[in-house]
Amino acid sequence: MIKRDVAESILRQNGWLSRQPEAFRSEVLRRSILLHFPPEEVIYHFGDDLGGIYGLVSGVVAVNTAPQTEAPRLIHMGVPGAWTGEDSYLIRQARRLELRALEETWLMHLPLDQMDQMTSADPSVIRNFCENLMHGVDVLIRIIHDLQTPDPDRRIASVLQRMTWSSERVLATQTEIGTMASVSRRQVNAALKRFAENGWVNTSYGSITVLNAEKLRRFAAEDH
After folding, report:
1. I want to staple 72 with a disulfide (CB 3.0 to 4.6 A). Which of 3, 46, 109, 169 is the partner?
2. Assigned fold of 4-141
């Protein structure tokens, strides 16, 4: 159980909201609802109706997406302080992402009607919400950049390093890591063995722990 004041403190000190003016930050938190999601529960589905934004307080969230005619695939893991969901607010279209809790997860939810009320009172807050959108664009640029690396081991290293943004413990399966790195499960397995021999990761049944994210980052960058 996370207390409300602790949840607010986490979001005040991390991510998009921490970089906003104090008046805006306080108004977002005042209007938000603290929600709990058990492991594997979907927060919202790809294609769901309009809704507000969600800020990750604790836990790990899988971010899945795809073109509208395709099945969503895992592309990223959410980190405490990260917010998402502003697409519905900005363009009034169905959800473009799917969010799923991978472990016990707490999120702060600012409903769409509350965002609209804030905008009616002060239209300039649109810029504040758009800053979060641009952060999401930066993450997508990093993902695309990593996928353009020719060497599969370096793509796998990039994925593992990105996943440490939320936790040293990697909750994705080898198949999911392969999806994010555009490689086969066999290639992931072989790379993990090499990374473990180098002391960068530790692998056990159903679990991967990153021991040296900086070495993974440097290895991935060698090909750039």
Report:
1. 46
2. Jelly Rolls (2.60.120)
